[in-house]
Amino acid sequence: MSQIFDRLPAIPLITMDPYLSIWVPADRVDGAETVHWSGAKKAMDGFLTVNGDSVRFLGKTEGNSCLTEQRITATQTKFSLTCDDVSLDVDFASPAFPDDPDVMSMPLTLVSLRLHTSLEKLQEVSVRLHLSDSFCYDGEVRPELTSDQFIYNGWQTALCGQKTQRPLCHAGDRITIDWGYLYLCADRGTVAPDDDGLAFSWSGVLEKEAVLRIVIAYDDIASIDYFGSPCKAWYCRNGAQIRDAIRFAEDSFDTLLERCGEWDERIENDSVRAAGKEYARITAAAWRHTMAAHKLISTPEGHMALLPKENDSNGCIGTTDVCYPSTPLFLKYNPELVNALCRPLLEFAEMPVWEFGFAPHDVGCYPHATGQVYAAYRRYPSGIVYPPVYSCPAGQGIYNPHYQMPVEESGNMLVMLAAAAALGADRGLAYAHQNTLERWAAYLADCGEDPGEQLCTDDFAGHLAHNVNLAMKAVMGVACYGLLFEKEAWRDRARAMALRLQEKIGCSGNTPLTLQGDGWSMKYNLLWDKVLGLGLFTEEFYRAELESYLPRIRKYGLPLDSRAAYTKSDWLCWIAALAQEREMRKSFLEPVARYLRETSTRVPFSDWYDTESGCYVHFIGRSVQGGVFAPMLIPCG
What we know:
By secondary structure, this protein is α+β, with helices and mostly antiparallel strands. It contains 15 helices and 24 strands. It has an 8-stranded antiparallel beta sheet with strand order 6-7-8-9-16-13-12-11, covered by helices on one side. A 5-stranded antiparallel beta sheet has the order 5-4-10-15-14, with no helix packed on it. The protein has a 3-stranded antiparallel beta sheet with strand order 1-2-3, with helices on one face. Helix 5 (320-333) runs parallel beside helix 7 (406-422), helix 9 runs antiparallel to helix 10 and helix 14 (569-578) packs antiparallel against helix 15. The two termini are 37 Å apart.
């Protein structure tokens, strides 16, 4: 068999949501113990035994690897191994399809095990897959657990979970779920609880081929505290429960795998068409990563809300400037999900406690969407649930204005809603909140052309006055408000802002970081001028600006700006999208693919890394990697 090994900094296996996101931090699936994206150990082990000889195919292998092939696509991790003339093909698949929100929201992983031999001689074969009960609790102290086993829908089924269930009992960043039940189901063999988890095993005489189907599921009981209402995943909105999701996966197992294959082919083809094969490596690395950083729920009114978690950042939920960079993936494959990103922020912004004339930063700390926690005067340690800020009346002075992001978040919201509508999403959400959106557009028009000392989404770099990127964000926001509501006067206002800005920063490339002429920076916010055809900046401006970036590209990419050698992979891909020539796009994107192949940092695709060393600076498993799909939004030659 030809050897094909796809290499990523970490390999995805179970990617359901921010709590159930399990990876192998190694080149190969048998190169390390499986962990949650945060690094917490969540062990899975797999063994193949043939005629008494045993090899490990999942979990850390002692000695030589027996893998012959490993392939990582957008929705699947596939690998093969041999033992005494018996081959085992393994497939971990995540059927998170953005055009099918019901399936997308189901907490499912499909595992296919295909055994085969070309020998006429019969082989005594057994396969074992074990999942630790640490999936069901946070931290290293093992609580009292309970388990059960039964036959459901004709499949062997086992579950485990804590004896005392406390749904939604904590909040914070680098933590894992501390409630709910893990399910393991198989169409053949035996599934049963053991001393420290759930185990699948199958033994038999292999003549030619055997296919074993496994479903891993997780019932989180309650997914999100949505402004005081415990809400379940979207698929549960009409009364469905985890058993319905499991039955669906069992009945549709082969069809779901086929759909995964179709999505993989679609994403790869779209990627190659947009920027080539190296770009396809980037999108394959980002797909499950992005989907697993969100939770799709049904609100109490039955609306769809898509809530990202700020992984390895601060644990916020529904962060505006985290939603914004992720939108290219959803705009490409289901723009209605962009509305679902915006809905919680719009609802919170119209509650009495939010008294500002600009958009909020977030709606809480995951999994509690109960009001902005960023820049609150009172802070709580990780693990502690914030009080229900949304219920407070006006005049409480909860937030520190100095640490808000007025231009950033207001521009983000207007751009997201306008882009979603332009690409086919329902405009009803925007119309329902038009008064709020006009207030934000007015703020941008009045204060955004030359922003004072403010934070932007790149808040790790600190406050910055006269930020050119923020000024461009303001121009985009005002133009998008005019586009969204068909108000030509607002579009004219944006054109006038853009003209004055262009006069200040020039049209010959090397545009500065600040309006005072300091430094330089990627002008990633200009993406929407091209995607939406706003006509704000000239083609000469874009060509000169992009060409000025090329000499600054380092081994692993273009730095974010002149202040440091680090970059943001999402913004870098936005810059690549602005390039009309295919070869120029490749110049921006191929260093990102090189980072994925060569970085020594073993975390899921970090979006903030050093362009010289290839080591991650911060941020793991974040939803912003949906931004790497930006080149798909603009055709190139």
